[in-house]
Amino acid sequence: MVQVIFLGPPGSGKGTQSARLSELLAVPHISTGDILRTHVAQQTDLGQKARRFMDQGDLVPDQLILNMVQERLDQSDAQKGWILDGFPRNVTQATFVESLVQRQKAEQGSENADANGLSTINLEVPDEVLIERLLARGRADDSEETIRHRLQVYHEQTEPLIQFYSDRNQLSVVNGNLPLDQVTDALKKAIVA
């Protein structure tokens, strides 16, 4: 079973690389950002609550995300594996994913019902490169001020996950500031390792 979590700041290439690996590995690419943007566009209750946080560049609170992720990981196409892009974003969410992985393995009768086998990959890209990339994509929510705030939030709230997964021997670091195909090749090696 392939279970991959992509860490990395906004603009590091998580979405692009997740989509590529999803095709190669034949498992769903699950992006909480895409799911949230869909809810916002459809003006669901969750979308309206989430929009307030997203517009300010803040992380959407855990309680708005956890049930949505659990529901998605319980769907039939995710039973053989998945790639999570943009989640977890903090240690509380990481602990939640760990418990979901353990539950899934136990339900499938796996002898080893712990979270081993989970691969976490951190895409490293310098902040100034990220700012250039995000400004170039031209989204309405990508002003330089908002981007810098999102990077600050990432460094404060999400970077602790690097240590969390490193302590569990579940972390690989990949240079995300290489040409696209080189990053994909490095990711394939990290997942197989």
Short description:
With 193 residues, this protein is α/β, with parallel strands linked by helices. It has helices spanning 14-25, 32-41, 45-55, 62-73, 91-107, 127-137, 144-158, 160-167, 180-192, and strands spanning 2-7, 29-31, 81-85, 118-124, 171-175.
Give a description of the structure:
With 193 residues, the chain is an alpha/beta fold. The chain has a single domain, classed as Rossmann fold (3-Layer(aba) Sandwich). The protein contains 9 helices and 5 strands; from the N terminus they run E-H-E-H-H-H-E-H-E-H-H-H-E-H. The chain has helices at residues 14-25, 32-41, 45-55, 62-73, 91-107, 127-137, 144-158, 160-167, 180-192, and strands at 2-7, 29-31, 81-85, 118-124, 171-175.
Key terms for this structure?
13% strand; single chain; 193 residues; Rossmann fold; alpha/beta
CATH architecture classification:
3-Layer(aba) Sandwich
Q: What strand order characterises the main sheet?
A: 2-3-1-4-5
Number of strands: 5
Question: How many helical stretches?
Answer: 9
Evaluate the radius of gyration.
16 Å
Strand content: 5-15%
| CATH class categorisation | Alpha Beta
Counting structural domains, the number is 1
The rough form would be described as: globular
Largest sheet: 5 strands, parallel
Topology-level CATH name? Rossmann fold
| Percent helix | 55-70%
What distance separates the N and C termini? 14 Å
User: N-to-C SSE series?
Assistant: EHEHHHEHEHHHEH
Average pLDDT score: 89
Uncertain residue segments = none
Decide which structural class fits the backbone.
alpha/beta
